[in-house]
Fold this protein.
Amino acid sequence: MSRPKNKPVHISCENSRQRGAGTLLAWLLLGVCVIFGVALAVGGAGGGVSALWALLDGGGDPLLGRVIVELRLPRVAGAMAVGALLAVSGVLMQTLLRNPLADPYVLGLSGGASCGAILALAAGASGIWVDGGAWLGALATMLVVFGLAGGPGGWERGARLLLTGVVVASGWGAAVSFLLYLMPDERLRGALFWLMGDVSRGTDPRLALGVLALVVGLVWPFSRALNLLAGGPDRAAALGVAVTPLRVMLYLLSSLAAASAVATAGSIGFVGLVTPHLLRLAGCGDHRVLLPASALLGGGLLTLADLLARTVIAPRQMPAGILTALLGAPLFLWLLRRSGR
């Protein structure tokens, strides 16, 4: 009896896809490690790769070692965590709304967090109080958008949720402008830096790293269901996916990731929008690979942007959000033109 011809071909294609995904993740991990090491080694206080290697080998300048451990390491780890959170949130938002233009801030979360943080800064608060204000603003936005959109039953293919988020985001933008207008001059500079996306203000990245692990750990087991949901809710439901609970989970986890990123580093755009497109352009459409790959690529991109932001015009440092916007806009236009072809 002859063996079926299609089974070996299917197994061969599946093995080929797995090898390709493993190769992509390996290259991304290698690139992130290189960026992480260079970001630790380079800075205004001097150093370099050779100096970092000497410190790791037990020698080197003790003062430079303190600078790396106490200043650069939290900043680089925070940039990695924030970039990964934005990228993962972008993947979840685009799957939830089935809209390739969706990003972590499309539902007004950034505006709500910004308004809460600006209120805290206007009151003279700093540190954890600003982070708390950003968290409360993002939480309020999440509840308002969820309620106004009518819950999962009102999310007709994501359009109602998307439109509600856009309107709420517009309202928050007006509120932030009004608060900036009323703010005293001595506090205005700090507020503007926060709105531009300043990674240096995130002195303790542990919360962002913990939220990242929580979000990825909760959503990754549902990767197959996300693949089906991306093809349409009706098709996913016909194949046995509990669409409504899955969409609620995506909304809550993407909101949590975006709120954590904004509370840690302020408003940083384009990372969550561009990262999933770059990976899909490379043929990475399976969420089992897309989620960890997005976390790696998003973290590496924001860390690289922050490295350039603090070295290009040294000794002055610009907020990383300025550089991501300057580089992200033309990159996204190029992606649109390429995908149109």
Summary: Confidence is low (pLDDT under 50) at residues 9-13. The first helix runs from residue 6 to 41.
